[in-house]
Amino acid sequence: MALGHRCTRRAWLGKLAAGLTVPTLARAAAAPAPVLSPNSAKATRSKLGMPGLHPGRVVSVTHPASIVEGKFQVDPIRRMLDEGMIELTDADDATQAWRQFFEKGDVVGIKLTPVGGPLVQSSVEVVQGIIAGLESAGVRRQDIVVYDRYRNEFLKAGFDEWLPAGVRWAFASEGYDDLQQDMKRYDPNHYMDMAVVLPGQDLANPAARRSYVAQFISQDVNKLINVPALKDHQSAGVTLALKNLSHGLVNNVSRTHSSSTLNVCGSFIPAVVSLPVIRDKTVLHILDGIRALYHGGPFARPQFVWEHRTLYFATDPVALDRIGWKEIDRKRVSVGMKPIAEAKPDEFSTFLNRQPEHVEIAGALGLGMWDERRIDLRARSLQG
Known about the structure:
The structure is a single chain. The chain is an alpha/beta fold. The chain has one domain. Helix content is 32%, strand content 19%. The protein is built from 14 helices and 16 strands. The strands form three sheets. Strands 2, 5, 6, 7, 10, 11, 12, 13, 14, 15 and 16 form an eleven-stranded mixed sheet that branches. It has a three-stranded antiparallel sheet with strand order 1-8-9. Strand 3 and strand 4 form a beta hairpin. Helix 4 (74-89) packs across helix 6. The radius of gyration is 20 Å and the shape is globular. The chain starts with a helix and ends with a strand.
């Protein structure tokens, strides 16, 4: 093809991308086109919804004493949370920072991640600090609901044992199963329909090709704080803010990566997060990178865990995941490994092609800022 033709085609693609919708973008990304539930698509956008009050802004706060001899340290972590919230919001103090998002009368969910535990998961000290921040903004303990999708994983992680008195907890399913079609705690009115099913399932069956939203997010809370961990993922490339939502707030997710070659995480993740009931209620992301994982995820093998000693703050999940992805790649390169997007399968990470491109596709859908030149990264290093 002549150079002139390449330029013409590039210009045409640029114009096309500017008008892409969720279904057409997923099709352009060489994956089956998703469809959002009709009533969900009519929801009114919230100014707090993604990319939120501070699009493109990411704050990282590092404290060398946040973990000492393998133990998380309460006081340094509380200071990290205060400084991170102040820097994110430009507020005068931490209480004013929390009040940018929350007020008395809000029912606030906190989405945790137990996968990768006990080594790499949402940590006790971070979550307890978040709860204290919510209380400082006037949110009552009984109006705080800590959640993860699977009840048995929540309990195995011990999350229920260290919640302050009065704080509630919730789940969507008893435990993992491949079909994931138990609808007791899912909302039939909010779903993402994508023409991918588990092998052997009937594509004509709506339950097989739809992922329904947990009642927790659609009915129980009006705002959500997303608390992922900094982790590598075999099929999605990374499992940070976006994937903690997409695979934690809906059912029927096994179909997205059911084998080493049947993998549609690249388009599934941004399509689910684009559901208005998720997009508009998720107002804050705090990425727990005090202890992190650079290979073999989502389950944490000790040889791939490192003490990163950093928390990240954002209202923009795309910008946050872009920065988190870079940190994981930086660690991988430092130990002689290929970056995530270039990595080939091995005994610990078996998927043929990882799909970290879900982060860029989410940016194209307006969920946040992908262009690193426009990301306002504010890095702080604390001492003492």
